[in-house]
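Write out the bound-state structure for inosinic acid.
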Amino acid sequence: MELVFASNNPHKVREIKSILGNSFTLLSLTDIHILDDIPENEPHLEGNALSKARYVYNATGMNVFADDTGLEIDGLDGLPGVHSARFAGEGKDSSANIEKVLTLLGDNKNRKARFRTVIALIFEKQEYLFEGIVTGRIIKDKRGDEGFGYDPVFIPDGKTRTFAEMDQTEKNSVSHRARAFEKLREFLYKYSQTDNKLKR
Ligand code: IMP
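---
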């Protein structure tokens, strides 16, 4: 069965292919010739994920899912949240984003934070949402070279190293995205067990 992942990020598409296995033919936006920059203007992660999935569903009628992720910092009232990618400007510059977070936090003692991923799935005409969260804290100085985004300043609870000091396997064992995609995988697996349509 074909399933569209509303993303053109080859790294993400590869990662998700490995999580979902072979029961599905996973198609990216490029595969289905959607090259538009799908708007992400909603005030919440849920709204953005849903609007991306609906955009593709309305254009193609295909089963589709989309994700959106944000870093929510308690000491900044949940910022950068839905603005995580462009927190310091349209350039989506990770270093500038981190600098802005560290400057705004200053010496704030409340450095509790969470990464949250929301996946919106439109499957057989029904909409579903899946959420994955990892809680942790923001440190004062960057550490590590792996990963991307805010990884160098985020230490997940129960660990002593930042996401940027972990390899992909260790990050996946606790990460927001892995948790959300695991829920999607379980949903699709259950469906495939109860409905032979997936085996056609
Ligand atoms: P997206 O929705 O996956 O594109 O994520 C939006 C933004 O959140 C990214 O541009 C990053 O700044 C940040 N982000 C998402 N996932 C991660 C992560 O695993 N580590 C660090 N930053 C992340």
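---
The beta strands are 2-5, 25-27, 64-73, 80-81, 112-123, 126-138, 154-156.
The longest strand covers residues 126-138.
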